[in-house]
Amino acid sequence: MFSGSYIHNVDQKVRIAMPSKFREALQNEFMLSKGPDGCLWVLGKEQWQLLAAKAPKSVVVQRFFLASAVKCSLLEKGRFLIPDVLREHADIKPGDDVMIIGLGNRIEIWSRRRWEAVSSQVTSERIRQELPEFFEF
Questions:
Q1: Could you tell me if 2 and 20 are in contact, meaning their C-beta atoms sit under 8 angstroms apart?
Q2: What's the chain's average pLDDT?
Q3: Does the pLDDT value for residue 137 go beyond 80?
């Protein structure tokens, strides 16, 4: 299970270091694809197989997730390369800061600018509206 938020910098070769906390769970290999709202999704082997099994039910899902997906392996220092098509989708440029966010069964990668805009919309009231039982312990 992935959790936590990390700020990392994109180097001039458009590589990002995966947080060490996530490396072991990913076993140094993962699928990277477009994600909704202008982010990237990082999925381990098991989660990718679950997504791929559901994809044949929707050509839209196939075109969005499967067509953009690439298999990544971590290089030295836990870094990986972001292909151009994915970098453009997420508006990530060399020298940018990115947010690497653990969300349970997946990891999302956001340009820091987009993450700040999206996360600023999350309020206690919105959480109560979307999931009222969340605050019931």
A1: no
A2: 93
A3: no
Predicted local confidence at residue 130, as pLDDT: 82
The domain tally of the chain equals 1
User: What pLDDT was estimated at residue 15?
Assistant: 96
Q: Nearest 5°: CA angle at 94, between 40 and 105?
A: 20
- pLDDT above 80 for 60: yes
CATH at 72 = 3.40.1550.20
Enter the tokens of residue 66: 């499967």
- Residue 26 is given by DSSP the state H
Q: How far is CA 64 from CA 19, 23, 69, 85, 102, in A?
A: 26, 25, 9, 12, 21
